[in-house]
Specification:
The chain contains 18 helices and 26 strands. The protein is an alpha+beta fold. The protein has 4 domains: about 150 residues, Ferritin (Up-down Bundle); about 170 residues, Vaccinia Virus protein VP39 (Rossmann fold), CATH 3.40.50; about 70 residues; about 70 residues, Immunoglobulins (Immunoglobulin-like), CATH 2.60.40.10. Helix 1 runs antiparallel to helix 6, helix 2 crosses helix 6 and helix 8 packs parallel to helix 18. The longest helix is centred in the first third of the chain and has 31 residues. The protein is elongated, with a radius of gyration of 29 Å.
Length: about 625
Amino acid sequence: MLTGEIRSQIDQIWNAFWSGGISNPLEVIEQITYLLFLKRLDEQEIAEELKANREKKPMQKRFFPEGKDSKKRSFQDYRWNRFKNTDPRDMYAVVSEHVFPWLRTLGGNGTTYSKHMEGARFTIPTPALLAKVVDMIDKVPMEDRDTKGDLYEYMLGKIASAGQNGQFRTPRHIIRLMVEMVEPKPTDIVCDPACGTCGFLVAVGESLRERHPEVMTNAKLRQHFHRDLFHGFDFDNTMLRIGSMNMLLHGVENPDVVYRDSLSQDHAGEDEKYTLVMANPPFAGSLDYESCAKDLQQVVKTKKTELLFLALFLRLLKPGGRAAVIVPDGVLFGSSNAHRSLRKMLIEDQKLDAVISLPGGVFRPYAGVSTAILLFTKTNSGGTDQVWFYDVEADGMSLDDKRTPLLSEDKLGAMPKTALTADEHAKNNLPDILARWRKRDGSERTRPRTAQSFCVPKAFYGSTAGGGTGIGTAFKITTSGTLTSLYSFCSQSGCPDGSYPEAGLIQVTNGVLYGTTASGGADNDGTAFSLAVGLGPFLETQPIVGRVGTAVKILGTNLTGATSVMFNGTAAVFKVVSSSLITTTVPTGASTGFVTVKAPGRNLKSNKQFRVKP
């Protein structure tokens, strides 16, 4: 655990970098990463020396060569314990003129981090700053895996601006929530095809150490943990260096963190290789068809990166493999043929387990886009039955650019050390998500659609003109093949309820299904009927597209007493006309997303996204 003193030291070094002219947070972390790597090499060299002395044998492996370099400098001067005690000017000369040129030649020594050293650049501007950084790193108790891991995570948390191609860091508490939901196993083979700083892979490793201590005591599992369990792809060399160092400092010796353009390179050798995929890939828009991997185009014909990544996840997973991934809301509600095709594939051909809607501010200050967590299992044979939904309203942090904690540290995250009160739950939904997820096959199935979490049966509702105990039925059928008769018409003498129901059941805003029959009723001219099947109420907006200032009607039920109307989290001025109608206008600052109304005893959400035009 980081002490306040260590945090203060890091902050001072950070300020020194900025004062020295290095303002890019990634560059700051990269320079510190190189120095951490040098310290690590020296620690390994010392361990080999001690082993050789103990066994009275020559050293089997040297990390620093014997002899001198081309400039007549001893390679032993490259070692951390040597140069850290030298004059700042001499230290600067050794590191800039000797150590870094040598680092760029290390790619063939077999370790993951060394593979990414080819482009290493030394950009620390002054001897004084280098001496400060070296002194700070040397004071941190790096023999403690938790401390050095927390140190690196603290530095990564300082990345406060989006990188190119939509890169940004996923908050650690969201990652931990997702990891707890998929419950990694020691035998898993995990892949993040857009790994960045390797946050997901690190969290999987930490979870396995906590939940399955046998990964460190069983020789076979330990070998698998260090060599075969973790796989990450990225096409940014800086991210590869930072990510592989993050893994190293969290105690994973040789993860497979490699350069790969996940959407452009074909995936021969990677198909159906992994049992778990976890990712929050960059969704930068569209690629040219010529730039897209051909094997992904075979899954879904599209240029949209969010759909291509979903296709990639399906290619990478073994049958039976699980995925927990973050997607933009467009994946859930996009209307293109490609969007519909991929949703159908997830629901009909695979097993969609859960959709967790995240609030728009979770990724601030990087982006305000609305996103969701998808959890699914690759089956290639369907299996979607009950899909679990959770509408997250709070994650323990403010949803503005500052992302300030709303609770004390012991009450944050998905597994807080102190239990939350009902009022505190309103500020941090994550523990409730985890608790309710574990009840998804039980009590969650009976919760109404108006609740914060509920299950939706993947079902088709329809009617038959004959059959049943009378003349025609209304029915439900799930993807697992379960057929349920909801109602039999004309089961009483004279058919007062009607007979021969006509096709086309309609669901309206109160959640009830309505339809008509062709005959029966008082005059044998047919009837109108309703069926309450537990679908729950929703809102409908007219129109569903508009600009700021566009007049909008909101249709619903029991709207009297409404206290707020929000367009994707932006408050709107409104008027309650009746219990079923609210009038409003699209507010300034609104973005595409759901319209929500807070009314007494309920929170209602539109059945479709309202698209805000520029």
